[in-house]
């Protein structure tokens, strides 16, 4: 007879109970008259500069929005133009047997359709809405895609869209203190995507203070994606992380995201850091980062690395390799020069 296998289900049961309790509590909020079943929606003021979200992928053309089918697949969030902004956001929530199953935050002007009637709620304040949504965010048991993780992510996106200090403080608390790495990462991302300069202020401490390298790396990414990075330069923050973080991957990725941000300091910062960086992997990634700049900047930057005899041979060879991958007249001219010199010898 085979020996029965004992499995400790307590962590999984505990996480499931947390999720169920949070989702069920969605139907027990005094400030919101929430249904036991079906769709409900309410409108709140959007944070300044909030994107005019509709369903990503539903644009028919540049002049007409498609209709968000709320009951169908989970679309991402998007807007027609990067400068489109919303003054109000409408929250859509669907319940089954008193449990929240789906949550979306869209521009109030985004057209939607659902299989059942959407019950409108009136006179819901942004603060009450933000408090309710913040309570939906529960610890995650896995990084994999799941209904629990999807609801957490949508809740954090919705929270970021709300105007007011309650939404800001709730998002900040999750970004900096939540027990789940994935929750902290999502909070960082939505803060910079939605809350402008304020979002940069929320995210910046995590770039240096979070104990997890994955979160610090994600903070670098989030900062590089902010639409307000020129209003409050993120370049010094990324350069500091690239030169001081204790983890090689965080330093490497900080260089990459600095280049992706197209900050004017990129070339000089990498040139200054290469001789001081002790890890070859980071130096290699820093050279690669230069290749990600626009061609009119990448080519001269890589030529300068290739010509700098104070650098180790491997970095110079790596610069030449990336020049060979570019469609740039300057790169071709330099490579022809090298080949001609080699042929002459």
Description:
The radius of gyration is 24 Å and the shape is elongated. Helix 3 runs parallel beside helix 5, helix 4 packs antiparallel against helix 5 and helix 5 packs parallel to helix 7 (213-225). It has a domain at 195-345: Leucine-rich Repeat Variant (Alpha Horseshoe), CATH 1.25.10.10. It contains 14 helices and eight strands. It starts with 9 loop residues before the first helix and ends with a helix. It is of the alpha/beta class. The strands form three sheets. The chain has a four-stranded mixed β-sheet with strand order 6-5-1-8. Strands 2-4 form a two-stranded antiparallel ribbon. A hairpin with a 2-residue loop joins strand 5 (88-96) and strand 6.
Shape: elongated
Q: What is the third-level CATH name, the topology of the domain at 195-345?
A: Leucine-rich Repeat Variant
Q: Report the span from N to C terminus.
A: 79 Å
The largest sheet has its strands arranged as 6-5-1-8
Q: Under the CATH scheme, which class of the domain at 195-345?
A: Mainly Alpha
Q: From the helix content, strand content and strand pairing, which structural class follows?
A: alpha/beta
Quote the beta fraction: 5-15%
* CATH H-tier superfamily of the domain at 195-345: Leucine-rich Repeat Variant
What is the annotated CATH architecture of the domain at 195-345?
Alpha Horseshoe
Oligomer: single chain
- Unreliable residue runs: 1-28, 58-64
Please report the number of helical segments.
Answer: 14
Largest sheet: 4 strands, mixed
Q: Rg, please?
A: 24 Å
Number of strands: 8
């Amino acid at each position: 007879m085979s020996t029965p296998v004992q499995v400790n289900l307590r962590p999984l049961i505990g996480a499931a109970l947390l999720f169920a309790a949070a989702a069920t509590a969605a139907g027990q909020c005094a400030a919101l008259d929430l249904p036991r079943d079906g769709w409900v929606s309410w409108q709140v003021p959007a944070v300044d500069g909030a994107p005019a979200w509709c369903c990503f992928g539903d644009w028919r053309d540049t002049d007409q929005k498609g209709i968000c089918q709320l009951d169908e697949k989970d679309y991402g969030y998007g807007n027609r133009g990067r400068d489109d902004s919303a003054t109000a956001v409408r929250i859509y929530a669907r319940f089954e047997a008193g449990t929240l199953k789906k949550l979306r935050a869209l521009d109030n002007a985004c057209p939607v359709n659902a299989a059942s009637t959407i019950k409108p709620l009136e006179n819901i304040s942004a603060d009450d809405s933000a408090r309710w949504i913040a309570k939906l965010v529960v610890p995650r048991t896995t990084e994999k895609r799941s209904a629990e993780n999807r609801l957490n992510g949508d809740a954090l996106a919705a929270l970021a869209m709300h105007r007011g200090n309650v939404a800001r403080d709730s998002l900040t608390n999750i970004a900096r203190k939540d027990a789940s790495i994935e929750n902290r990462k999502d909070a960082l991302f939505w803060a910079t995507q939605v809350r402008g300069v304020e979002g940069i202020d929320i995210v910046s401490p995590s770039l240096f203070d979070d104990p997890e390298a994955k979160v610090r790396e994600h903070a670098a990414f989030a900062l590089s994606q902010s639409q307000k990075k020129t209003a409050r330069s993120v370049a010094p923050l990324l350069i500091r992380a690239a030169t001081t973080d204790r983890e090689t991957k965080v330093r490497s990725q900080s260089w990459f995201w600095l280049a992706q941000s197209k900050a004017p300091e990129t070339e000089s910062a990498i040139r200054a850091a290469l001789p001081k960086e002790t890890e070859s992997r980071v130096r290699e990634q820093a050279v690669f980062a230069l290749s990600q700049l626009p061609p009119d900047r990448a080519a001269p930057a890589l030529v300068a690395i290739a010509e700098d005899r104070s650098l180790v041979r491997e970095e110079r060879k790596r610069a030449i390799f990336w020049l060979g991958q570019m469609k740039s007249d300057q790169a071709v001219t330099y490579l022809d020069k090298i080949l001609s010199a080699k042929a002459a010898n």
